Amino acid sequence: MPEPTHLLRVSARGLLRRRGVWLPSAVILGLLSFVLSLLYLGANDDPVGSTKDLPIALVNTDRGVQVAGKRIDLGARITAQITGAADLKEKVDWQQVDRRTADDLLARGKVFGALVIPDDFSASVAALAGPAQHTPHQPTMTVLTNPAAGSFGSSMATEINRKVVETTSAEVGEQLGQAAAAHRPAAGAAAQLTVADPVKAVIQEGHPLGQHSGLGLSAFFYALVLVLGGMLGANVIHMQVDTDLGYAASDKGPFRIVKPVQHATRVHHFLVCSALMVVLSMLTSALALAAAVGVIGIDASNLTLLWLFGTCATAAMGITALALLAVFGTPGPLVSMLVLIGLAVPSAGATIPIQALPDFYRFLATFEPFRQVVDGVRSILYFDARTDAGLGHAWTMVGIGFAASLALGLALTRLYDRRGLHRSTPHLAQPVPVG
C-alpha cells in the first residue's frame, strides 16, 4: 500500500535534530535515574548504622540460687546490664516480658526476635564455680528468631542477641575464674575453657515458617505482584478506554486503527476506568493466587481472605494510579511509578526493617501504600490472618487510600470539566491535492 501523499514528511536525520525530541527525553530519563538511585541506595546504604528502636523481647525466667547462704540472681543482673548497655540503648527497644507474652509478640510479628535467660541459669553458673563432684551443665541463653516479621530484621536481632550472649559469657567467665581456681586448682584444659567461656547461645525458631515461604520474603513478592497489578492495570485500562473513544490510535504490528473521536467528560472517563479496575481486580487477584499457590506452591492458608485482600489492594492501587493519570495526563504513569514503586518499595519494611531505615523513609512508611499491603499479606500468610498482626491496620489504610484516590480523581476531573478542559478535540481538516 503506498504511503499517503498528503501527510507532512520528515527524515530521520531531521527528526533527530529536533530539540523537542532530545531535551525532554534527556531530562526525564536523567532525573528518573538520579531519583531512583537516591531512593533505593539511600534506604539500604547503612542499615546497621541507621537502626533505631529495633524491637526485641527479653525474657528472664532465672529463679536464682543460694550459694553459701547468699542468694545469687544472675538473670536479674544480666537483664539490667543488657537494657542499660550504652551501645544498644538507642538501637534496640528491649521489651522485658514473660515467656508467654514473648511468644505472643513473636506470633504477631511485633518483635524480630527474643533473648531468653532460662530458669536454671544462676544454678548452672554456680555449679561451674563449685567443687567438681559431677559434670556441670553448661549455662545457656536461648536466642529466638522470627523471620516471619522480616528475614533481614530477624537476622539483625539474632546477631545482636549473639553478641549479647558473647559479652555476658566473657563477663561471667572472668568472675568464675578465681572462684573455680579455688575449688578446682587442678582442673583440666577442657574445664578451664568451659569456665573461660561458660555461656552458650542456643538458636531456635521463635515463630516457625514453612519451607515454601521464601525465608519470609514471599509476602513481599506477593504484595509486589498486587501493587504492580494495580499500577499496570490502570495504565492498560486507561489506554484501552482512550483507544475505544478515539483519543488514541491502536497499533497492532504494522496495522494502525484509529476510531472516530467520541466525546466523554473527564468525570465519566475516570468513573468508567475505575469501575473496570474494581471488577478486573477480582480476576487479577484470583490469577495471582492461582499462580502463587496452585502452580508454585507457596505456603498459604486463608485463601479466600488472601483473594479478597488482594482484590481490594489491587483496586486501591489501580484507583490511585488512575487518579494520577487523570490529574497529570501524559506524565501520569511516571508519577504513579514514583508514588507506588519508587518511594514505596524502599519504605515498605519488607526487606530492610523500618527501624533500620533513615528517618525520611520512616516518615514515608506512615502513609505509603506498599507498606500497608505488605503488612496485610504478611499477616495472612504468616500470622494466621490476625488483625493485631498488621491486617487490621492494612484494611484501614487500603480503605482510606481507595476513598482518598477516588475523591481526588473525581474532584479534579470535575474541575477540569467545569473549566472546559476537555480531552476530545475536533478533527482538523485534512489537506487535499489541488487540480
Automatic annotation (TrEMBL):
The chain crosses the membrane at residues 21-43, 219-237, 270-298, 304-327, 334-354, 394-413. Residues 27-398 form the DUF3533 domain. The keyword Nucleus does not apply. Keywords: Cell membrane, Membrane, Transmembrane, Transmembrane helix. It is found in: Cell membrane. It is a multi-pass membrane protein. Gene3D superfamilies: abc type-2 transporter like domain. GO terms for cellular component: plasma membrane. It holds the Pfam family DUF3533. InterPro entries: DUF3533, T7SS_ABC-Transporter. It comes from the Bacteria. The keyword Ligase does not apply. Belongs to the ABC-2 integral membrane protein family. This is YhgE/Pip-like protein. It comes from Streptomyces nymphaeiformis.
